[in-house]
Amino acid sequence: AVQPGTAAADAGLRPGYVIVRAAQQTVSTPAELRDAVQAAKAAGRPSILLFVRLPGSQGAVPGLLRFKDE
């Protein structure tokens, strides 16, 4: 679920959207997405490129997830 006020919500992600790639890696589980985000943060990157499949869509659209200051 997308929580209000999070980086995901700020990026425009909504329930029903499916993240299929993160940082040039295919992701199919929340754990794989979490690992990709943690690796990007550990590398000092301010954001990560996601590809998201929208409900009813065959393809995926790119989106930039900017990390909030923690």
Can you offer a commentary on this structure?
The protein is of the alpha+beta class. The protein contains 2 helices and 4 strands, in the order H-E-E-H-E-E. The protein starts with 6 loop residues before the first helix and ends with a strand. The mean pLDDT is 89.
In N-to-C order, the SSE pattern is HEEHEE
Q: Return residue spans where pLDDT drops below 50 for at least 5 consecutive residues.
A: none
Largest sheet: 4 strands, antiparallel
Amino- and carboxy-terminal Cα gap: 20 Å
Radius of gyration: 12 Å
Oligomer: single chain
Topology, number of strands: 4
What gross morphology would you assign? globular
Number of helices: 2
Amount of helix: 10-25%
Strand content: 25-35%
Give the class from helix and strand content and strand pairing. Answer: alpha+beta
What is the residue-mean pLDDT, rounded to a whole number? 89
Order of adjacent strands in the largest pleated sheet: 2-1-3-4
Task: Provide a concise account of the structure shown.
This protein has 70 residues and is α+β, with helices and mostly antiparallel strands.
Topology:
Blueprint: H1 7-10, E1 18-22, E2 25-26, H2 30-42, E3 47-53, E4 61-66
Antiparallel strand pairs: 1-2, 1-3, 3-4
Provide key terms for this protein:
alpha+beta, globular, 2 helices, 70 residues, 29% strand, four-stranded antiparallel sheet
